[in-house]
Amino acid sequence: MTPPDDVSANGQEAHFRALEQLYASAPVNQLFESRLEVLEPGRSRISFTASERFYHAAGATHGTLYFKMLDDAAFYAANSLVSDRFLLTTGFNLHFTKPLRDGKVIAEGRWISGKRRVFIAEAHLMDEEGDEIGRGTGTFMRSHIALSGLPGYHQPD
Question: Which of 38, 114, 128, 141 could form a disulfide with 119 if both were Cys (CB 3.0 to 4.6 A apart)?
């Protein structure tokens, strides 16, 4: 699959770094020890640590952490292809494949399709042993929100 041509090669790295700054600046991300990397057009990775503070009553990580990291990884994979507008999640399907307790986790996102208004991206979670613990597919739509107007999104002049 060939990604859309919305982002020129010259501005691509600046756009990727600005998306990483945007992620880090979001207030919700102060609740999580996580780091976003936009790897290339249509691909992202979020590294984070799961711990007891995210457990549900039965002693494993609550699904909200799965959803948040899968949604974010898929979202940023898709938004890496759009340099002018913030995308919005319009739907997300989530599958839990293994319980998670503690440890380092990687969420990897990948753009699948969509070149204009609607984008589809998927993501999967891998634990420290390299086992998949969850996966999801999201649908993302261009919004009317300009990336350049968002606090945290800064490209070098």
Answer: 114
